[in-house]
Amino acid sequence: MNTPRLIFASALAAIATIVFVVVITIWAELSVPLKDWLKNFSGHHWTSKSIFSALLYAGATVIVYGLFHNPGDVRLRRTLVFLLASTALGSIILTAFYTGHHFRLF
Hints:
The N and C termini lie far apart (about 50 Å). By secondary structure, this protein is mostly helical. It has helices spanning about 5-30, 30-40, 45-65, 75-100. It is built from 4 helices and no strands. It has one domain. It is flat.
């Protein structure tokens, strides 16, 4: 197994999963039908989001691992920096959304 290739694939899959979680979380809070569908899927909307996130991460990791054979050190480093930035930005967006939602700003 090619470790840098796996790290690269995992990082890209994690970025995609972060984007998915941020989007689906905000969308579900603003759309009652979506939130109800997520609840009906597994019993609780957070459980459904977790299931879909795990499937997305696993699937994206396999696909990216198959598509990219040698990411190179610079590309790998940039991807990991982008993963860190995506994590921070996703956290900030969700915190801002729930803060505004709590204070009924939107």
